Amino acid sequence: xxxxxxxxxxxxxxxxxxxxxxxxxxxxxxxxxxxxxxxxxxxxxxxxxxxxxxxxxxxxxxxxxxxxxxxxxxxxxxxxxxxxxxxxxxxxxxxxxxxxxxxxxxxxxxxxxxxxxxxxxxxxxxxxxxxxxxxxxxxxxxxxxxxxxxxxxxxxxxxxxxxxxxxxxxxxxxxxxxxxxxxxxxxxxxxxxxxxxxxxxxxxxxxxxxxxxxxxxxxxxxxxxxxxxxxxxxxxxxxxxxxxxxxxxxxxxxxxxxxxxxxxxxxxxxxxxxxxxxxxxxxxxxxxxxxxxxxxxxxxxxxxxxx
Length: 307
Ligand SMILES: [Zn+2]
Prior knowledge:
By secondary structure, the chain is mainly alpha-helical. Helix content is 53%, strand content 5%. The site of zinc ion has 8 residues, from helix 13.
């Protein structure tokens, strides 16, 4: 399918329509899953469970099949979920999270009635997966796990689970945002390694070589926010001014879409942007400067015909 000749507005319109159709289809698929499961039709086809039928026969990936099954069970219990799926207020990941909680509560002998479930679903509408998990953990009083877990894995890698306080998480997230120029993948393991290497270098003067790391980005080690560095030489925006701009912008992208009024607020690879580029006669005066994420910085350059 060649979409390259379609006008932007039509392309966006089409995708919106397709997304609505997809959500309707998702709802229909969940209804069908429930009916097929209640008639045990998968057994006649040679499968011992609906999950196997979905993965082996219908070709769903294991995660996709699991999420659909969990969501279908919740839909069966609370039919009002249908409307929320169709209008995009709840997604399969959230429904899976809720269903898992309900199952857990059931195991613990806590009866959650439909009215309570509906209330929970209302609370998590339009929330991210992280926010949903946090709400559910608070609502269902999930025990706080404080012990650290280090699990060796077969390829000599190690899986670590640690508990962070809200403040510790905020601090790490801030470091991750500030280093997102160097760590574009946003990977926590790379962040911890980079911070450790910087500290080792500071204390011992020795540079720790990247060893068996999958991340290419660590090769940039030592160059904090490279785009800022090059920008400084080229554009001469003072570091103190940049800091002030970032602070005023609350360390978020300030881009507001003219068509939808949506503010980006990304914290990824923030850069100081000239509203009117220097190349087009703009100046370094603060009212010509704003903080943008990498995506909107590129968009701005594109709109000025500079990329
Ligand atoms: Zn942005």
